[in-house]
Amino acid sequence: MLDSFAPTTVENAIELGLLPEEYAKICEVLARTPNFTELSVYSVMWSEHCSYKNSIVWLKTLPKEGPHLLAKAGEENAGLVDIGDGWACAFKIESHNHPSAVEPYQGAATGVGGINRDIFTMGARPIAQLNSLRFGRIEDERTQWLLKGVVKGIGNYGNSFGIPTVGGEVYFDDCYLQNPLVNAFSAGIVKVGEQLSAKAQGVGNPVYIVGSSTGRDGIHGAAFASKDLTEDSANDIPSVQVGDPFQEKLLLEATLELSQTGAVAGMQDMGAAGITCSTSEMSAGGGVGMDIHLDRVPTRQDGMTPWEILLSESQERMLVVVKKGRETEVEAIFAKWDIHCAEIGVVTEGPAVRYFWHGDLVGDLPAESLVLGGGAPVYYREFREPAYYKAYQEFDIQNVAVPQNLHAVSQQIIALPNIASKRWVYEQYDSMVGTVNMSTNSPSDAAIVKVKGTDRALAMTVDCNSRYVHADPEVGTMIAVAENARNIVCSGGVPSAITNCLNFGNPYNPEVYWQFVGAIKGMSRACEQFKTPVTGGNVSFYNQTVMGNKAEPVFPTPTIAMIGLVEDKSHVMTLNFKEKGDLIYQLGTSREDISSSQYLVYHHGITESPAPFFSLEEEYALQEQVKMLIRQGVLQSAHDVSEGGLFVALMESSMAGNLGFDVTTDSEIRTDAFLFGESQSRVVVTVAPDQEEAFIDLMMLNGVEFDLLGHVTKGSIRIDDEEWGQVAEYKDRYDNALHRALGAA
Amino acid sequence: MKCGVVTFPGSNCDQDMILALREGMGVETVSLWHKDTDLQGVDLVVLPGGFSYGDYLRSGAIARFSPIMGEVMRHAERGGYVLGVCNGFQILTESGLLPGALLHNASHKFICKNVHLRVQSPLSPITAGLEDNGVFKIPIAHGEGRFHASEEVLKELNDNGQVLFRYCTEEGSITPEANPNGAAENIAGITNRHRNVMGMMPHPERAVDSDLGNSDGIALFESLFAHMVSVAR
Fold first, then answer.
1. Residue A1 has pLDDT above 90, yes or no
2. Which residue in A160, A432, A437 is closest to B54 by CB distance?
3. Mean pLDDT of all residues in chain A?
4. Three-class DSSP labels, A433-498
5. Beta strand A206-211 with A317-322: parallel, antiparallel or unpaired?
């Protein structure tokens, strides 16, 4: 490695992952040749991970306006939504895919740490976490190693940090065998007006680094996340950071105490690209500059060079701009919480961020030239419809025989890893710390989190069926947004806004980029329909592994997380059946559609079919109807139909209520499609007999189709007068499938 | 009646406990800081759950050396009441205020879920007001909650009625299947000989707010406070 002050060549730039034309642009911006420190700074700031250079053109087309938004996408570390009563909710989802692929425990743990820092850096106290995890087939040994490591990493970090994990999703599919996806979400609340800004302000204000000392861990983490995985990726393990949840907990408490003092003029956590990113983004955001003395940064190891200090991704660190004259007050708070803090520089007029090493200038860079939205490169990538897309449309249900014994199929379906209970996973997460989780004892489609001191609750979900997105990126992504909204509506909430984690393959592959563009278009359409602006998130490209000459991208996976507001927590709707004798209705339309269903893939082994039927208008009308029914108080339970179809929806409500059901299928529709098809926009509700008339009157108002399926029983499962056993038998399969697959109690 | 909840660095159930006592139970409750040595005249000291000092060494192993713990020990020696929940229970065994130790769960995994507890001895403050053999649904959330003690200590605990709760099924059977962490004899909570120091792995403070759909913890706190009031008279 070169000396920090050494002049560079285009070869150095290529080694650091930059393109020759990018090196030329850097020389042009600086009007000179950058030294090695400066080039290192550009290499991380212009990496895919920090600059969004291959995605920003399309991200800008997403809807960002909403009546309740206090901070829009990209303005601060996370989106901020007004939730009433003087409170706002900050929330965001982020990926930690690459580190988790090579070091699942620390990779996942630091993902949790990073997303929570994004939230409390804004002065918001995190109150709930979600996560979305994807792995290869569960029988695979490597999958089991990854799954166990990731879950333990998320658990150990989140449990110690002390924020409940209230929900999430886990999918298994062969496409994730080498490239697991680990997406972590956190939501926090802050009094409106008390949030902290990530923009540096006030020339002459001192700049502090606080938290953990800076070590060599995580150097080039951002660069590692910006390339394909290969057989040699294990060599990148040093790029994976190491998490310390205890330090994070102290930082949280100190930060929130600090936010009450009014002594902070700007604060940002250090994630990807460490000091480099926080100093340049805070400076560019505030339209100022900074002088930073790297030799004053407390280090964990001796002999660290300036560029190593700049690029280190050591966790649990923050950059704080303090109002001049209030240093003692701030230092006292950090001392109280036993957190190290060191003054390392000062805010200047700018526009340059200047880095010093024992008094010598080692980097002098215009802040604006480094950042997204400033001088970072922006590329328009070519895209092309892949051949498979049209081929999938050729699928014809008539070529699939209806199985003889649907009872046996139902027993298989309920135990499929993608459908069975994720108890093995979520029992390792503290879901109840904070005493806000209202879903522990009465589950809803979305997780319901109490906002203490108010009558309100937040509903939150994370969802994406990537098989649908693969089959049809635009429709599949609309479905992902719609299902989030449906879950929130079925829980008694109103959708507010979304954050996304866009996990794709290599953007230089035109077919991958076609998937990306389709996903963005679908997301835009759905978010406009549901009035849920996109408040931020991240893009994770290069989720593909090159083995030999073959690159296999993962399914395009635009994970959507949504928050919604429950204005009065006494109106929360739950999914469990309540009383024997209650009537079971399906709202929405049954269709002869088994496309991309779990049933088609895992029972028939057919992986090539289009996305299931979806109509945005039909979906919206359904959700408006469900909202109205809940508000009118005529429902006993509501649960949406998703993976596994109507049968699984009925079964989930059954198992949660320890009751059974007796239903009749529709003679117009193939029974397998009726029970296991995944055509969208359907909700199963139960109605008490004495409410039936009121329910039907309300249903007649605006034309949403509805059908009486049957009624709730004491415990037996009956389909078309055929006895399918007891709820307890299904519950055993459902509850223990993952334990059986993973060979652990 | 006045309660104090100690905040160690890394405590994360301290605010839940304060809220449960103050708003759920309506009892005056103050926050105690680990660096302080003044117990502010509280009648009950509560050591809450969490990961004090990160629990990187052994749960509770460092917290016991906190400045405030000296005062807590003296408070206990004077007969003052101390309740440790989860990490608080671990700190009490580490500091010798309660016998035994809490080891890694038998599954070697962190476990968070509702469990059922069956009341054992009616002699201690937290159980005196409870129905004999009553069953309560209280959540657990721990990685190191497997109660362990020597045969002698176990015998002593049993003989003196120092076992407060055992893990049981919903119906109240004390079975191996109902034991979530492999604890010796399904023990979920114990008290000391003088019955003024109590420790338990389950979190009663998480079962106080009716919004969360489980209020079984209220009875435990009611029992504790009723006993303390009656003794004070």
1. no
2. A160
3. 94
4. CCCCECCCCCCCCCEEEECCCCCCEEEEEEECCHHHHHHCHHHHHHHHHHHHHHHHHHCCCEEEEE
5. antiparallel
pLDDT band of residue A541 (cuts 50, 70, 90) is: very high
Q: Per the CB < 8 Å rule, is A152 touching B209?
A: no
- Name, in order, each residue with C-beta under 8 angstroms of A612's C-beta and a sequence gap of 6 or more: A468, A479, A593, A595, A596, A597, A677, A678, A679, A680
SS3 A235: helix
Name the residue ranges covered by the structural domains of chain B: 2-232
Query: What is the least distance, in Å, from the CA of A685 to any CA of chain B?
Result: 21
| Domain span at A703 | 573-745
CATH number at A278 reads: 3.90.650.10
Euclidean distance between CA atoms B144 and B87, whole angstroms: 9
Q: What is the pLDDT of residue A743?
A: 80
Model pTM score: 0.95
Q: Cα–Cα distance between A393 and A395 in angstroms, integer?
A: 5
How many Å separate Cα A46 from the centre of its chain?
23
* Nearest of B129, B140, B133 to residue B163 by alpha carbon: B133
> Residue A458: which of A113, A170, A88, A125 has the closest Cα?
A88
pLDDT at A507 over 70: yes
Q: Which residue has the higher pLDDT, A582 or A68?
A: A582
Q: Among candidates A277, A161, A603, which has minimal Cα distance to A408?
A: A603
**Residue ending a domain, choose from A377, A399, A427:** A377
Instruction: Report the complex ipTM.
Output: 0.97
Spatial separation of the C-alpha atoms in residues A723 and A291, rounded to whole Å: 76
A739 is catalytic: no
DSSP codes, B48-114: --B-GGGG-SSTTTTGGGSHHHHHHHHHHHTT-EEEEETHHHHHHHHTTSSSSEEEPPTTSS-EEEE
What is the average per-residue pLDDT within A159-176? 97
Does B54 sit within 8 Å of A244, measured CB to CB? yes
pLDDT given for residue B118 in this prediction: 97
| pLDDT tens digits along A657-689 | 999 999 999 999 999 999 999 999 999 999 999
**Bridge partners, residue A712, by sequence:** A661
> Residue B11 has what DSSP assignment?
B
Q: Which residues on chain B place their C-beta less than 8 Å from a C-beta of chain A?
A: 9-10, 12-13, 16, 19-20, 49-51, 53-56, 107, 109-114, 139, 141, 143, 203, 205-206, 208-209, 211-214
Structure tokens at A689: 């007999």
- What is the structure's pLDDT at A238? 65
User: Is A113 a domain residue?
Assistant: no
CA dist., res. A639 & res. A466, Å (int)? 21
Reported confidence tier of residue B174, pLDDT bands at 50, 70, 90? very high
Is residue A169's pLDDT more than 60? yes
Predicted local confidence at residue B135, as pLDDT? 97
**C-alpha dist (Å) from residue A699 to A621, A641, A696:** 12, 19, 5
Specify the DSSP class assigned to residue A196.
P
Q: What is the pLDDT of residue A67?
A: 74
Last residue of some domain: A359, A377, A395? A377
Structure tokens at B81: 């009441």
Q: Which of A92, A272, A94, A90 is nearest to A183 (CA)?
A: A94
Residues A25 and A491: their CA atoms lie apart, in Å, by 52
DSSP SS3 for A30: helix
Tell me: pLDDT of A239 over 80.
no
Q: Please give the single-letter amino acid code of residue A743.
A: G
At position A264, the amino acid (one-letter code) is V
Is A482 among the domain residues? no
Report the C-alpha gap between B111 and B140 in whole angstroms. 7
- Structural domains of chain A, count: 2
> Alpha-carbon distance A447 to A568, whole Å?
15
CATH class of the B2-232 domain in this structure: alpha beta
> Where residue A88 falls among pLDDT bands split at 50, 70, 90?
very high
